[in-house]
Amino acid sequence: MRISGRLSAAIEILTDFERRRVPLKTAMADWARGNRYAGAKDRAWISGLCLDALRKKNSLGAAMGKDSPRALALGAMRFLWRMPVEELGEITAEEPHAAGALSETEIQSLSLSPPLIPAEAGIQTSGKQDPGFHRDERYLEIAPHISGDFPEWLTPHITRVFGDEAVAIMAAFAARADVDLRLNTLKAEPEKSLKALKTVKGKAISILTTSARIVAPDPSERAPAVTIIPAYNKGWLEVQDLGSQIAAAAAGAVKGAQVLDYCAGGGGKTLALAALMENTGQLYAYDMDARRLKPLFHRAKRAGLRNLQMRSPAGGEGLDDLEGKMDVVFVDAPCSGAGTWRRHPDTKWRLTQAQLARRMGEQDKVLAEAARYVKPGGRLVWVTCSFLKEENEDRLEAFLAGHSDFSISSVIEQIDASGLLTEEGREALAPCVTPDGALRLTPDKLRADGFFVAVLTRA
User: Over the stretch 33-85, which tens digit does the pLDDT of each residue have?
Assistant: First the structure.
């Protein structure tokens, strides 16, 4: 496809997303089914533009004077992908599949220096010089939800967490995410896996001894295909965000332990827990929705797990026999997913107040249920991929008010006990520690997704 056709496709997909409020990947898949001539590179380009447009929807809309799908796509091309106005004008006017010639108003908006797209927001560029792009004082006068690119109704929730730093931190949540990897020590030594990653430009992250990263490419380019390299298919590597890896390490010293992953889902953290356990002890993976466990069967085999039992209501396999017997109960709780906005920016525009309230109710129920399986002296690890206090501190406070036998412990001490934390990692995590000893991870500090991690110890 020519760029003109790709741009038109992005506008069409963004329009469908806006109309139906479905996940962006659903709108993208529906478009692809009706346009089978689009190749893999075409789909990657189109998807990349749609995602970037939604990452910075509010600030692009302010720069363009409107936030229609067309305005967002054009704004992303100009202000994020750095395409000159003249070139963009030629592309939009190209026949027969172009989006339509630029209007005078669009030309004027695209020609202005936007006050809302600061370089420190984290968008990767191709390195083209454009002196017209800079941050100016107008940026400081704009409403937080515009400059921080988040839904306006979330303003009190976000400022409650981040205070005066809210805009700067949320700008990091509006940037492209790197490809993070966990080096699976059940299959290969970290040094061996890192050597295999050179072909895709992967390098170690000096926070955990088993973490690596491929830096996010230029917006219009595809990320390296990690899942097709031999090392991945041998089980040496897992694609897993650094924040998720840190959360799993909060289980602490678990070699030989009895561990329950209570909301296992697709099993990313389950695999990380198994590696921490070195295939000793017993690891139970459970999820109320048996369908979510399906990918774990294949993933566990590829990763070399030998100490895993999978249980779900669908198989009539309850957890009654585990009550009060677990050394560690790991709870990756259902949440709003606010911490994953870098990777899934469409979700922040689909989140509603009703959904947030519903998640909070689910979290209270999950926390109370999971606590039943922690033995005296055992630990409950509470994890959400959300930075909101309503889904974290508030939930723990409510739980502790009715469970006096539990108390919050230091997360850093448990991660240190896992044996994965480096000296650099300890320093990097220090600013993420909350007053009560939990962790709130944000991309401005670690280039990781947003996670909250707390460890509760039972007396």
Answer: 999 899 988 999 999 999 999 999 999 999 999 999 999 999 999 999 999 99
Euclidean distance between CA atoms 367 and 380, whole angstroms: 9
Q: Which amino acid is at 145?
A: H
Burial class (CB in 10 A: 0-12, 13-18, 19+), 233: exposed
Q: CA-to-CA distance for 213 and 406, rounded, in angstroms?
A: 36
φ, ψ (nearest 5 deg) of residue 95: -95, 150
318: left (phi over 0), alpha (psi -120 to 50) or beta: beta
Task: Using alpha carbons, select from 374, 251, 286 the residue that is nearest to residue 323.
Answer: 374
Task: Classify domain 242-458 at the CATH class level.
Answer: alpha beta
Q: In terms of C-beta density within 10 A (0-12 exposed, 13-18 middle, 19 or more buried), how is residue 67 classed? A: middle
Paired strand residues for 204: 212
User: What are the boundaries of each domain within the chain?
Assistant: 1-113, 242-458
Tell me the CA distances in angstroms from 223 to 43, 346, 351, 397, 400, one per residue in order. 13, 19, 27, 41, 44
Q: Which residues pair with 328 in a beta bridge?
A: 259, 379
- List, for residues 172-190, the tens digit of each pLDDT value: 999 999 999 999 999 999 9
Q: Write the CATH number of the domain with boundaries 1-113.
A: 1.10.940
Answer yes or no: pTM beyond 0.70. yes
